[in-house]
Write a structure and sequence with these properties.
This is PfaB family protein. Residues 752-771 are annotated as: Disordered. InterPro entries: Ac_transferase_dom_sf (IPR001227), Acyl_transferase_dom (IPR014043), Acyl_Trfase/lysoPLipase (IPR016035), Omega3_polyunsat_FA_synth-like (IPR014181), PKS-FAS_Synthase (IPR052568). Residues 383-709 form the Malonyl-CoA:ACP transacylase (MAT) domain. This protein is of the alpha/beta class. The chain has 4 domains: 2-257 and 748-757, no CATH class; 268-370, no CATH class; 380-486 and 611-724, 3-Layer(aba) Sandwich (Malonyl-Coenzyme A Acyl Carrier Protein, domain 2); 505-583, Malonyl-CoA ACP transacylase, ACP-binding (Alpha-Beta Plaits, 2-Layer Sandwich). The chain is 40% helix and 18% strand. The strands form 5 sheets. It has a 9-stranded mixed β-sheet, sandwiched between helices. It has a 6-stranded mixed β-sheet with strand order 23-22-17-16-25-26, sandwiched between helices. A hairpin with a 4-residue loop joins strand 4 and strand 5. It is globular. The two termini are 24 Å apart.
Length: 771
Amino acid sequence: MVKPTPPVNSVASVSDQVIKSEMPLRIALLVLPASLDLSLCTGSLDSPALDSPETTKQLSVLMPELHNSKLLETTELVSIKVDDFEANLTATIESIELGKIVQISTPSSSLLMMHALKAAQNRIHPHAQLAAMQIQTQSDSAALADSTITDKSMAKALSQAKRKPDSVSKRFDLHELNSTEQFDAVCEQIKDLASRTHHRDATSINPKQAASHYWFTEHHQARVVAINLTNSLQSSSSKSCSASCISFVVSQGTGFIAPKSIIDTKRLEFVICADTQAELLSELARTKSTLTTKPGSLLTQMRDNLVSYEKSHSNKANISRYAITLQASSAEAMLQEITAMAETLPKVMSENGQHASQYKTPAGSYFTAEPLGSSAQNGLAFVYPGVGTVYSDMFSQLHRYFPSLYSQLEREGDLKSMFQADAIYHLDPKVTPAMQLGDLAIAGVGSSYLLTQLLVKQFKITPNFALGYSMGEASMWASLGVWNAPHALIEKTKTDPLFTSAISGKLTAVRKAWQLTNSDADIVWNSFVVRSPAAPIKALLPEFPHAYLAIVQGDTCVIAGCETQCRALLAQMKKRGIAANRVTAMHTTPAMEEHGNVEQFYNQPLQESLPTDIKFISAASGDSTVSNGRGGLDSQVVARSIADTFCNTLDFTALVHSAQKQGVKLFVELGADRQNCTLIDKIAKQDRQCGGESTDFPCCTVPVNAKGGDDITSLLKALGQLISHRVPLTVQPLIDGLNREIALAQLHSSLSSDHSMNNTQPLKQTLQGEV
């Protein structure tokens, strides 16, 4: 049953009750799509004409918990359109105290409010919880002193919420807004709580920095927002002034805003599957024709296309030999992608079996005539980068698309520390490159862990192999379900002498190896990337005992050690080196002084159930270990593998060749940026040009992230490549997002039509507040 807003003059006593209340309100808040009128879903006996099966269907997609609870069928709904915010709120609280539920809305924002106990009884996870609301009025000359009335009102609200001032995560003081603006402003803060989004002050960042990022908190600390809405009034009958302040204390709920759709009308994707060239061309032509003749059904076309793909790939016997992924930023651009793909396809198919048998466009469309990731190939490897690939503001938008993943990670451990958020998301972008070695290591493992969970949990991708570049081996063990408590290493990495002083900082391991005393001068250490094979460098090392060949990686090497000797070595080679200007003695002879400590540091308890279908390849030995139950892995084996890699020269070229010989064909990089993919591509190119030992092995790289690119676009391009390489995966997250987009579009369209037919004011609701 729908009730109108009570008249304003009926709520004065309620306002007094709110002001005097000393108990938390405990009101559950759900953000609704602005276009969703719940009165159309009630099916009440009083107004059966309002019942809309189509709206109810859309509710089941947009708000599944609310729909499944049947709450709208069993509880009286009060519908309030905001006109006098203070009066509307007090009327809302009165209705909730009487056991009703309330939808309160403006044209651009909408909330469903109910008692928190009612939400819990109906298994509804609220987006936020209103703990306090206080109204403070002042009618004297001090009324214009905003801070006075605001602080008094806020103090009362915090007292009502039973919270101390230091428990408030953010405080917003908003002045001179009308009722609609006040409600919309409060809704925006609730949306941020529900999406765990922190917005930056636009005046404090440059255009290249992210406008927002994940809202990190200290471990186990809830997000709490305090909001003060202050207005001053001039009496029309006298010269006296008055002021009013409404204060709220709102905390995060157990639910969160539903994911943003990964694909939409500005980020398109189609998948074309077939067994022959002729069939592929036919499907391309059919897709092009449908786009041309039915442009208005773009979202539905993409959804139906992906549903068809998902169904056909649920049965392995029905999987087609080839797949084309088409990506574009608009329908017009998609038509161009289809034309380009159709023109290029015959040439790519004729090169099948050669290294150029693939085609990809800048927009992300991709096709390979030589799929390397199918179940029959068993050639998929996850590759984990080493220290130093993380960058400022990385992954700043991912949480909006995968909120459940971030929620899971937050339950598992200290997410803020895992990402080293204070440095990665610092307003000064120079802070991230200057991070200490231990902090870089933590953030590197954290970024790899996040992307691994994303591919494994969200898209159901399981690698056949795993390998790591340098400390990427630690990321490998942490990310793929081997270590029982990888988060336990975060604090150890920040404080253990191994990272703070032994192989970084004061370089105590190096001083010991060089037999220096405390009175000797500090070591000036550096590392340089030089374009050269390893052999010429090795030949000169005896002349420079404090310079070391640290890394071999395709057509370049990294030398490290005493800066003076490294520069002298480069000068003798007549080579120019690029200085890393980072102090780390990993992969040099002095690091062997710490071998035992490294082994002890990484000797971590393993999971009771270990992955049985992944071969882990060690950079130190080049061999792979399969965790067949516990038959192939134990904590000592893992720790020694990391220590051996840590303390010896890293030959990444040899590691890649070893992986290829064991069956790896498709290398997917799991970490910030795409440095490993670049290196592997160079190694493969060098092999082809020079007739290297792995010339005959097919090789393709897939970066999941790229510095300077859009996070979701980079991810979507990676998924497109994996689909074309026939990697078993699910596209259900894409389908779910499109279903929500379609439901919102249909809801908006149907309500616009209804309002037009009823000769009411044109509908101005937007699709903001998607849930």
